[in-house]
Amino acid sequence: MAGLQYKIQISTLDCTGCGVCVEVCPAKTKALAMSPIHEEMEKGEIENSEYLFNEVTYKDNLVGKNNAKNSQFAKPLFEFSGACAGCGETPYIKLVTQLFGERMQIANATGCTSIYGASFPATPYTTLDNGRGPAWANSLFEDNAEFGFGMRHANEALRDQLQNVLIGAKDKLDAETAGLVEEWIEGRADGDKSLEVYNKLMPIVEKSDAAWAKKVAELSATFFMVILI
Fold this sequence. Notes:
This protein is mainly α.
């Protein structure tokens, strides 16, 4: 089996030209160098980036996202933010979306993050192929802790409601589905396990016309969500 090849491709047309990536490179011989955009276009870098963006899939299913390098095999769900050149916040947001983006709810504080995070009509937050990605909200004032605390309570209340629906339906379910319900109840505090159960249980729910299944479908977004403030 051929080994994996690792490449980080610069998007020529999206580069802001700040030069921070060159400056912070820890190697004795810099891995990157600034050059005029027309030279990169002549070398075919636009075609290279389009090929990687459109034809190469992400490989986070092959490795655990438990270190800095492996996390970069996952798709960033925060991109092209329009923040100031060299902004120190955006790389961290990008990394967090690579680790947890499919199940993030963000209570955003007013400030730079609310400007580059939601410059109407665009947003730098994006989704996976399954349509899931970060949910973002800003409360206008510097009260994101209280704002996020309320979101957290609401989310947990809905998850309690979801658990009660599933417990009430257990006696009507076949052994496999009941086992999934029990697995989710035992591991509902673990976001990764909750997402794993969700992916197995939802196809069963979607095929059912039972009242419990309709209620579970209504509450399905709370299966695996986490709150980030």
